TrEMBL record:
A biological process from GO: respiratory electron transport chain
Family, similarity comment: Belongs to the FAD-binding oxidoreductase/transferase type 4 family.
PROSITE patterns for the chain: FAD_PCMH (PS51387)
Keyword field: FAD, Flavoprotein
Protein's UniProt name: FAD-binding oxidoreductase
Annotated PANTHER family: BLL6224 PROTEIN, D-2-HYDROXYGLUTARATE DEHYDROGENASE, MITOCHONDRIAL
GO MF annotations, alphabetized: catalytic activity; FAD binding
Keyword check for Phosphoprotein: no
Record-linked InterPro entries: FAD-bd_oxidored_4_C, FAD-bd_PCMH, FAD-bd_PCMH-like_sf, FAD-bd_PCMH_sub1, FAD-bd_PCMH_sub2, FAD-linked_Oxase-like_C, FAD-oxidored/transferase_4, Oxid_FAD_bind_N
Length: 472
């Protein structure tokens, strides 16, 4: 291996081949600080050519590769296992905005660009890059694509796959596929782009991407409304979609009352709006190219109609950008507040919107029956069917003891997800955490097709092995 590492140093420079345990620690530790893997080295190439050279070298020596961006994943997809046989291929030095085309409304970026960097570049030419996540200050575009990230704007703009027009990828053999074409229509064979998006680095290394941009909205209005049930939230969503004419329903976020309690407990400096206590809340955002006055009227009319129908019982409308940002800060602080409360069991699931209320009612009851006193931290992107359905330990119970029951909790949740025709991973991916779970919920035909794709593109199983699917 000394020869292998020496050749890596020749390719990227000795300063960018990390072998010291202390230097490697942050790269082999997962985002939630629950797992620490081991790596032969952390390699930090500066461009696509260096990535290709490293991958080609790894293919020659049969060394496994774990591609990594901001390492903000939640399913152990971006960290190595504990064998110490893999390298971590950090793409953080690939961080350039390559091109912006204001006429074609596209932007071409390196995979190591932070999400906020891409958002800011779009804003600089009066365009919108709508992908928005709580981790947007640290996550990278390559990671977003590898998990087909969604976030809060999927409802109108779609997830990462929908936003991406083209990719640049280094294959498992070390070849470079340049698919950075800014085309909305290109029906010339198999869609290779969609194979790599959502593959979590198991088929190749995404090094660049070309995305669609959109006009900046002239107005964005936000409201937080109080409801008695998830069924009412679904009814409100249907009402909002049916009554939006000149406005766009750009976000529709479900928040349980316990979520706001946790934010208030752990982040008291974040001001909470004065609303009557109710079991659930919805954060609504309307966007428009029309003057703000029109959007204000549309939002007010929607809430008034919902109140008349007994769906909404209280509401706060943001009257300024500062107030709107404060409402979004409440939403984006939920995960941090839950982490501050203690260890918890996370579930990133998706369901048909029509089944969400029944799923929550049924699964909450099952969990209380088997794990009495467990506390549900339920929130997420109801408008696109994506729930973060998280389970915290009963008050005053040992968090570690509760976490030891994770497999049993997962079985209740995932079996219920399957019963209600959903998916056990909406936007976080499978990684190593759900690598075995998926075998229970995908058909043998699906799994065989996935294995055949993996084996065809990565025959030596060097690309992020042990994640998503095992080829043999």
């Amino acid at each position: 291996m000394n020869t292998f590492l020496e050749r890596c140093q020749q390719i990227v420079g000795a300063d960018f081949v990390l072998t010291d345990d202390a230097e490697k620690l942050s790269y082999v530790t997962d985002y939630r600080q629950r797992f620490i893997g081991r790596a032969l080295a952390v390699i930090k190439p500066a461009n696509t050519l260096e990535v290709a050279a490293i991958v080609k070298l790894c293919a020659e020596h049969k060394v496994a590769i774990v591609p990594q961006g901001g390492n903000t994943g939640l399913v152990l997809g971006s960290v190595p296992d504990q064998s110490g046989n893999a390298i971590v291929l950090s793409l953080l030095r690939l961080n350039q905005i390559r091109a912006i085309d204001a006429i074609n409304n596209t932007i071409t970026v390196d995979a190591g660009c932070r999400l906020t960097q891409v958002q800011d570049a779009a804003t600089s030419i009066q365009r919108l890059f709508p992908l928005s996540l709580a981790s947007e200050g640290t996550c990278t575009i390559g990671g977003n694509l590898s998990t087909n990230a969604g976030g809060t704007a999927v409802l109108h703009y779609g997830n990462c796959r929908a936003l991406c027009l083209g990719l640049e990828v280094v294959t498992a053999q070390g070849d470079i596929w340049d698919g950075l074409r800014g085309l909305r229509k290109d029906n010339t064979g198999y869609d290779l782009r969609d194979l790599y998006i959502g593959a979590e680095g198991t088929l190749g290394v995404i090094t660049g991407a070309l995305f669609q941009l959109f006009p900046l909205p002239q107005s964005q209005l936000t409201a937080l409304v109080a409801l008695n049930s998830v069924a009412d939230a679904v009814a409100l969503f249907h009402l909002a979609r049916s009554n939006s004419k000149d406005t766009v329903l750009s976000a529709f976020e479900l928040i349980s009352s316990f979520c706001l309690e946790l934010v208030g407990k752990h982040f008291p400096a974040i001001r909470q709006p004065t609303l009557a206590a109710h079991p659930y809340y919805v954060l609504i955002e309307l966007s428009s190219q029309e003057p703000e006055a029109n959007s204000v009227t549309a939002l007010e009319n929607l809430i008034e109609l919902a109140m008349e129908q007994g769906i909404v019982h209280d509401a706060v409308l943001a009257s300024s950008l500062t107030q709107s940002n404060a409402l979004w800060q409440l939403r984006e602080s939920i995960s941090s507040a839950q982490a501050a409360e203690g260890k918890n069991i996370k579930h990133d699931i998706s369901l048909p919107i029509s089944n969400i209320a029944a799923f929550i009612d049924a699964t909450d009851a099952q969990l209380q029956k088997q794990f009495s006193g467990c506390r549900m931290v339920t929130f997420g992107h109801l408008g696109d069917g994506n729930l973060h359905y998280n389970v915290s330990a009963p008050l005053n119970d040992s968090h570690d003891e509760f976490l030891a029951q994770q497999s049993a909790v997962n079985r209740v949740v995932y079996d219920s997800v399957a019963h209600f025709c959903g998916s056990i991973s909406a936007e976080h991916g499978l990684g190593a955490l759900k690598h075995d779970e998926i075998l229970r919920y995908k058909s043998p035909v699906e799994m065989q097709l996935m294995r055949q794709i993996k084996q065809a593109l990565d025959p030596h199983n060097i690309m992020n092995p042990g994640k998503v699917v095992t080829p043999f």
